[in-house]
Specification:
Structural class: mainly beta
Strand order of the largest sheet: 5-6-7-8
Number of helices: 1
Strand content: 35-45%
Radius of gyration: 12 Å
Helix content: under 10%
Length: 79
């Protein structure tokens, strides 16, 4: 599950659950916010791209370099 908090610590929303299907995330390793507040989630060998409203956009297979550098999981870093 991914939780989103306001700057003062109030829970704004939470979404997703553990698993491998639509709307599910398995073994989340890193999150990154990209251009236009797009959210990138590195999990289970994939990078899932979510819109600023947290809806699914696409999934990208993460290469070995992205998996090895999970602390830098944004797509520009995964090349």
């Amino acid at each position: 599950m991914i939780a989103v908090y306001s700057p003062d610590g109030a829970l704004l929303t939470a979404f997703g659950r553990d698993g491998e299907g639509p709307g599910e995330f398995k073994d989340i390793r890193d999150l990154a916010v990209g251009e236009g507040d797009t959210l990138f989630v590195l999990h289970d060998g994939h990078i899932t791209v979510l819109s600023p409203r947290y809806t699914y956009v696409r999934s990208i297979a993460a290469g070995p370099a992205a998996r090895a550098r999970a602390t830098h999981a944004c797509p520009p870093c995964a090349t």
